[in-house]
Input
Amino acid sequence: MIIAVLIRDLRWLVSVADNEHVTDTAATLGVSQPTLSRALARVEGELGARIFERVPTGVQLSPNGELAVAAARDVLARYDQFLAELSSRLDPDSGVVRLAFLDSMATSLVPRLLRAFHQHAPAIRVLLSQEPGHDILRDLVSGACELAITSARPAGDYGWLPLQHERLVLIVPPSHRLRKRRRVDLAELADDELVTTPTGFGHRSQITGLLAEAGIAMKVSFESADLATIEGLVAAGLGVAIVPGQFAGQSGTVGIALTTPQARRTVGLTWRTDHPLAPPAARLLAFIEATWELSSVDPGFSGEAAPRGT
Output
């Protein structure tokens, strides 16, 4: 049996149970007595049980009615709690924003962005999800996240706000034959082994494309979803890698510029445009649009996009 009882009907049901009089309850609720009686009959019809028995002084609960009213009180309490929590979540001053971002942004751009926003709106909570690009797209589609920081603008109904440009560099172990070079052509790496992200990651697709343009296909020695881990594997002599310039040298690797101008990526903020953002998310987006300046992160350059005035 499918139950289709209105929340309003449950409130009226509880009110009648408390007052034990239909006419008096109708007056208290500000509705006509026939309207209230029809609502009670509708509930009894849906439940298939009589809830009230008539007595000289009004009405009283039947045994089935006692069970129904207890359940109605529980449902109403849960519903009121849900409304209160939803209102709090959507409050533009103290609500919740769900933000997903690439692993490679965990220690650089995201902390700086959130520090600035927290100073602007300290009561808003930002729930963070650190994940690869294909999972970010899945979460945007499902609504698990509202805003996302990624390295490629999704196709379709998505907004895009570039946050920073990054140059990709070759990193090699400190003993590698190319360690003293200032620039390297990708074709020179044909005999090296590559440490990179797994198949399906946006970074992997970009690197594969760069190698194809150079006319080579490198053997993959190790895979990791984390660019910092990849840098550590290269430092241990387990291959070479192509990563954003800020990762070079973290564990002793040597960063070398690439000759191809396509060795770059743009990191940006994206969101769905097929429906409005919740007020807290819209506030975060508006703050970033108003305060963030697009700049570059290049090999040998420590600057990055930052809030204006910092």
Remarks:
- Confidence is low (pLDDT under 50) at residues 299-306.
- The chain has nine helices and 15 strands.
- The radius of gyration is 30 Å.
